[in-house]
Amino acid sequence: MLEIGKIHTLKIDRLTANGAYLIDTSLDKPVPVFMPRRYLTPSMRRGTNVQVFLYRDSEDRLTATTEIPRVMVGQLARLKVVQNTRIGAFLDWGLPKDLLLPFKEQRYPVHPGKSYLVAVYEDASGRLCATTYIEKYLQPDSPYHKHQIVNGTVYLVKNGVGVFVAVDNRYSGLIPATQQFRVYLPGEVIEARVINVRQDGKLDLSPTKDIPQQMNIDSERILKELQQNGGFLPLHDKSSPAEIKQTLNMSKKAFKRAVGRLMKNGKIKQTPHGLRYTETQN
Q1: Is the four-CA dihedral 45, 48, 54, 60 of positive or negative sign?
Q2: How does the average pLDDT of the chain come out, rounded?
């Protein structure tokens, strides 16, 4: 059976002025599939086997091409928006005919020139389309373990829940809200650290490094903020987590660790009103 959106090896049954008609010789009653002339090469003859990708052209005809798109049916890929139209957005997926992302499959607004993670599916009429509702296409059984660094694409942000990330554009990951210290946007490519592997195989992630590395980063961030504010920062042990997050984009726990290190190294001092450089730092 010929499946749209997938690669097949078909035989050239006959050549015409406009192209060739291909058939699947394993079928009892093969249906000819048209391949436009631009995909023919001098070595192709009647009886030649050709590896092709099947899709429907602008007139909804089943069509073969020797060009292979960046993503197949049932797969995920990060694709760039070419344009928005009255029926949805069109994405560049490597074929002359762009891939439609219907409005009903857009869980957030998409913008021309930006790339987003989508899955490809065949709609009820047999056309290939894209969707941003990708959860069912993700796999839970990732090969990653706690403390490993991974890369992925943000595909959903939920207030109070966190940032949903497709690790390797393949596995389910989540930056919990407690680990979210800045604004993330759908389509953004990020690096994160695995902080937990759930029983179902899904990954909990953090944008921070391991503790020793992160302490260095956080310490430098505090010193930079002090420098930009005349040597004083109105944050201290009694500051709320929200105040610390708003000012420094870090958790209160990370803040206290970094402050402890800086005080131990004699670089800052803590007062009832906030942090100050030590005299030797002024």
Answers
A1: positive
A2: 90
Predicted pLDDT of residue 280: 53
pTM of the model: 0.73
Do the domains spanning 7-65 and 211-281 agree at the CATH topology level? no
pLDDT at 26 over 90: no
What is the assigned CATH class of domain 138-206?
mainly beta
Q: For residue 26, give every residue at least 6 positions away whose Cβ sits within 8 Å of its Cβ, in sequence order, or none.
A: none
CATH topology of domain 76-135: OB fold (Dihydrolipoamide Acetyltransferase, E2P) (2.40.50)
Structure tokens at 188: 């953004």
Those residues with Cβ within 8 angstroms of residue 241's Cβ, 6 or more apart along the chain or in another chain? 251, 252
Reported as a single tens digit per residue, the pLDDT across 60-70 is 888 999 999 99
Helix (H/G/I), strand (E/B), else coil: 198 = coil
Q: How far apart are CA 130 and CA 83, in angstroms?
A: 14
The 8-class DSSP code of residue 27 comes to S
Integer Cα distance of 121 and 163 in angstroms: 24
CATH 1.10.150.20 fits 211-281, yes or no: no
